[in-house]
Design a protein that fits this description.
Strand content: over 45%
Mean pLDDT: 85
Family: Belongs to the intimin/invasin family.
Number of domains: 10
CATH superfamily of the largest domain: Macroglobulin (MG2) domain
InterPro entries: Big_1_dom, Ig-like_fold, Invasin/intimin_cell_adhesion
Protein name: Big-1 domain-containing protein
Organism: Carboxydothermus ferrireducens DSM 11255
CATH architecture of the largest domain: Sandwich
């Protein structure tokens, strides 16, 4: 410790006092205790004397002296002793006469040290411990404790549940063994010593008993978020059965609408609207939530299920730690689909009338008819055992249904949305009950007057025979078989023979002792004595609307009125009573036939006791739509639409009574209809138009620009949809998205129809940044513009006669030219001449401004996109590298090289005049100085050019014979090198130009 003296010490103390007065209260409150006490040893044997020796007693302010040691004996009251601290330590002999915990601390006024506990324990050695969980049986917890006095025993007791304890005496050797028949409570158990009356418990050890596993399942693999009703059932199935407690289901992870859970619940409502965590009390481990609403659109719902024997404090809706059974399930919460379907029930009972409510909601939780709902058209169909119902376009759909047997009821929702897309959703609701079947022989013989011996087979939903049910048949036959009285095998109930005395329904009712049911209903026909013959065995959909037939009884025609029963092509049963005999036949109107299928008819006498059957097939006409084959109409362009109709019976073309309808069904486009000569027939705008004949028309379609979807036109023949034509815009494209300001730019625009065919003779315009150009497309649908914008901005490309096209935009901007010129060199690889003419071509979009050949500047008239030059280069013997450098106006420089090898010709072998008298002019510019006739350059004998007197050219030397030479002459675009013949060589001469 550093000690300060004098004025400096006084100054520091004064400053410290000042700072202490300025410190906030919370800082002063955190000032450490004046003394820090440590004791050794901290564990002693009861009934022994130990010397307590402190560790370091720290005097914060430098004061030492007498301090008070306050202590509390095991099970006793607070006592004190004092100690004089000469050097910061103390020692004290103390008798620990009791078993238990002793606490010590240093205390002086309000300054208190830390509390130190000295454990007074007998020598304790536990046996090896395992891990324990609820349901474990015959658990032995043993060990050794030495010196335990008489009147004490070993005790295991639950830490928080009163009355749960087990005991064991201690042997002379100190051994004990506590036997637990079964752990029925989870949580913390403490093992220690106690008096035989249970008092004076001293803890030696803690033992944790874990919950048994609960398997948590749900009848859904995912839930829908965003305030939607979710019909879901959670099931908690224990691995070990524990009795005497209560199930709880804790839901967390997403926001839960507070009004969508009911029963005994625990949790804190947030913003008066929702739970973030809620626990629901349950009696049987099966929690049905018929309309659980999850406010978060996505996330994970965590379901924690537990079973607890003791009472639970759910003040905060939190899971209690000492549950006997525990399990967890995570279920994803997904955003709402475009169409969401819910029902008010999750199961049904057979032969029981139930009100089934179906709710159909869009992605925004709105129903049909709500403001802003995306549900444009909704149809709900409910099918199942003896269940067939449908309804459409309502906010809520209610059906009273009575499924006859165990199985499933299916709810099918077909919804058309405002974007004209269609969604189909299906829900399956299980039907609990029995399944019954009547033997096939009886079903086939349900005819008035027939004798039947019914056999009814009864099973559960899974096909397991039910032998203790009661089966009752009523109607034209009656009888009962009670499986509780009669010995039934394999679920088959056999009835005695009896006649069918009427044509009322044959009804079978089944019920078992638990109340599960099934019901069968069959019609009974009259006797089959009619012969019925249809006029046509095949009807053509869209053309035929009625069926005619004759009825005979034996050899004689029936002239009395009859009833006709049939099921139409939509599966709906129909009955026409009192059909009248006229002109030798009966006729039944079937209405519009718009699909193929088979219709089975029964002709029944009005008293129901005679009948006959016949069948007709309905076939679709063969309708061929020739154009457009891809089902597309190009917006703003006349398109040919052609079709033909053929009979499915004999494949002959049908023209009579054929009505072709062009129908606009989404009000997004207008349509003009024209004949093949271009004469207007009619304009169609959101209404049907009957074209009749001819079978070919031209349609001009224009979509409403404000409508967000494609226009659509249906082609129907006699009400049968055969084609759907979609209005698509023409496609206008350009080959560039950017052009340079101040430069000529070639832009190619292409216009094609919606079938990807080019459009000819269409006007295309370019407008913007000082550009206003108009062009006409060629046979390939193309038009080329030369564009020179004077400012940056957009240039819009348009085909004004075509609506709704995507108009490409070209950006005019200042372009930094970083592309080098492109150089092409043409020169022979070898030569025997001292000079060579090199053809040089240089191209650059930014224009060529300079040209060097072997470092020599070549003059250019002006910068241009393409430069062609012939440059004569003098060679040395051997390999010569010709280097060409070119620069554009932006300063980009390109370099190219070509190698030419020069080999001198060998001298002639004799003295013949094979030399060239003008060899001194080789490689130089010369001119014709005199000529009676002109010099003719004629490669390969074909006259190329005739050079007149005074013509300047470059002489390149002989080609091996006296009159064959090579010259370089000026042609359009530059010098070109040719080999030709000189005619009349004695009448001309060459001089240096």
């Amino acid at each position: 410790m550093i000690r300060l003296k004098g004025k400096k010490a006084i100054a520091i103390i004064t400053m410290a006092a000042f700072l202490l007065t300025m410190l906030p209260a919370f800082v002063l409150a955190s000032t450490p205790a004046k003394y820090v006490l440590t004791l050794s040893p901290t564990t002693v044997r009861p009934g022994t004397t130990a010397t307590l020796v402190s560790g370091s007693v720290v005097d914060i302010y430098g004061n030492k002296g007498v301090v008070t040691i306050v202590y509390t004996p095991a099970g006793g009251t607070e006592q004190t002793f004092t100690s004089t601290l000469a050097d910061g330590t103390f020692a004290k002999n103390y008798v620990f006469d009791k078993e238990g915990d002793y606490t010590f601390q240093v205390k002086e006024g309000t300054d208190v040290s830390n509390v130190v506990t000295v454990l007074s324990r007998y020598e304790y050695t536990p046996d090896a411990r395992g891990s324990y969980k609820v349901g474990d049986t015959n658990v032995i917890l043993g060990g050794t404790i030495k010196g335990l006095p008489a009147g004490r025993q070993m005790v295991l007791q639950h830490e928080s549940v009163a009355g749960v304890y087990y005991t064991s005496a201690v042997t002379d050797t100190g051994r004990f063994a506590i036997s637990v028949p079964v752990f029925t409570y989870a949580g913390t158990y403490v093992l220690g010593t106690a008096n035989t009356d249970g008092t004076g418990f001293v803890k030696y050890e803690e033992i944790t008993v874990a919950p048994q596993t609960l398997t948590v399942t749900a009848d859904k693999t995912a839930l829908t978020g965003g305030s939607f009703d979710n019909n879901v059932t959670f099931t908690a199935k224990p691995a070990v059965t524990v009795s005497g407690g209560t199930y709880y289901f804790e839901l967390s992870g997403v926001k839960i609408d507070k009004n969508s859970v009911s029963g005994t619940i625990y949790g804190t409502v947030i913003d008066s609207a929702y739970y973030t965590k809620v626990a629901i009390e349950d009696t049987d481990g099966i929690l049905n939530l018929a309309s659980l609403k999850l406010l978060d659109t996505s996330g994970t719902l965590t379901v924690k299920a537990y079973y607890q024997k003791d009472s639970v404090d759910f003040a905060n809706g939190l899971y209690a730690d000492n549950a006997e059974l525990l399990g967890t399930l995570n279920i994803p919460v997904n955003p709402a689909a475009k169409v969401n379907v819910f029902t008010n029930v999750t199961s049904l009972a057979a032969d029981t009338t139930t009100t089934l409510a179906v709710y159909v909601k869009d992605v925004n939780n709105k129903v049909y008819g709500d403001t802003g709902s995306t549900l444009k058209d909704v149809k709900v169909t409910v099918t199942g055992p003896d269940v067939s119902a449908s309804d459409s376009n309502k906010a809520e759909y209610t059906f009273n249904i009575n499924p006859s047997q165990a199985g499933d009821v299916t709810v099918t929702v077909v919804a058309t949305l405002t974007d004209n897309t269609q969604e189909t959703k299906t829900l399956t609701i299980p039907v609990d009950g029995l399944k019954a079947t009547l033997d096939a022989a009886t079903v086939a013989n349900l005819v008035y007057g027939a004798t039947v011996t019914p056999k009814v087979t009864v099973t559960d939903k899974n096909g397991t025979p039910i032998n203790n049910a009661t089966v009752t048949i009523s109607g034209p036959y009656s009888g009962t078989v009670d499986g509780r009285i009669t010995n039934i095998v394999n679920g088959q109930y056999n009835f005695t023979s009896g006649a069918l005395t009427d044509v009322t329904n044959f009804v079978v009712n089944v019920v078992d002792p638990s109340g599960k049911k099934a019901r069968l209903t069959y019609p009974v026909l009259g006797s089959n004595v009619y012969t019925v013959t249809p006029e046509k065995a095949t009807l053509i959909a869209g053309y035929d609307t009625e069926v005619s037939f004759t009825v005979k009884e034996g050899a004689y025609g029936v002239t009395d009125n009859v009833n006709v029963a049939y099921t139409d092509l939509n599966g709906t049963g129909q009955t026409v009573n009192g059909v009248t005999y006229t002109n030798g036949k009966y006729t039944v109107s079937l209405g519009s036939l718009t699909k193929a299928g088979t219709i089975n008819f029964k002709v029944i006498s009005t008293d129901g006791k005679k009948y006959g059957t016949f069948t007709v097939n309905v076939k679709l006409p063969v309708i061929k739509v020739f154009a457009p084959v891809d089902g597309i109409l190009t917006d703003s362009q006349k398109e040919a639409v052609s079709y033909a109709v053929y009979s499915p019976v004999d494949n002959t073309e049908i023209t009579a009574n054929t009505t072709v309808t062009l129908s606009v069904y989404d009000n997004s486009a207008t349509f003009g209809v024209y004949d093949q000569s271009g004469n207007a027939l009619k304009s169609v705008n959101s209404s049907a138009y009957n074209t009749g004949v001819p079978a070919k028309v031209t349609v001009l379609a224009t979509k409403n620009a404000s409508y967000g979807y494609d226009g659509k036109l249906e082609l129907l023949v006699n009400g049968i949809k055969v084609s759907e034509l979609t209005v698509k815009p023409a496609v206008l494209t350009v080959n560039k998205t950017e052009v340079a300001v101040g430069s000529d730019n070639a832009v190619e625009a292409t216009l094609k129809d919606a079938h990807d065919n080019p459009i000819k003779d269409a006007t295309v315009t370019l407008n913007g940044t000082g550009v206003a150009l108009t062009g006409t497309t060629d046979a390939d649908g193309k038009v080329i513009f030369t564009v020179m914008p004077f400012a940056t901005g957009k240039i819009v490309v348009d085909a004004p006669a075509y609506a709704n096209i995507a108009k490409p935009a070209i950006t005019a901007k200042f372009v930094v030219d970083d592309k080098k010129p492109v150089i092409t060199i043409e020169a022979p690889a070898t030569t025997d001449k001292e000079t060579v003419d090199v053809n040089i071509k240089v191209t650059d979009e930014g224009k060529v401004a300079g040209l060097l050949v072997n470092g020599q500047r070549i003059e250019l008239v002006a910068p241009m996109v393409e430069v062609n030059k012939v440059v004569t280069v003098t060679l040395k013997e051997g390999k010569n590298t010709i280097t060409v450098e070119a620069a554009d106006v932006a300063g980009n420089i390109a370099t190219a090289t070509a190698d030419v090898t020069y080999t001198k010709p060998a001298p002639p072998a004799d003295n013949t005049n094979t030399g060239d008298k003008y060899s001194k002019f080789v490689g130089q510019m010369v001119k014709l100085t005199y000529s009676k006739t002109n010099l003719r350059v004629a490669p390969n004998g074909k006259l190329l050019v005739t050079l007149k007197k005074g013509y300047k050219m470059r002489y390149l030397g002989r080609e091996g014979v006296w009159n064959k030479v090579r010259v370089s002459i000026w042609m359009k675009g530059g010098y070109k090198t040719y080999t030709g013949y000189i005619y009349d060589p004695y009448f001309w001469a060459l001089t240096k130009a």
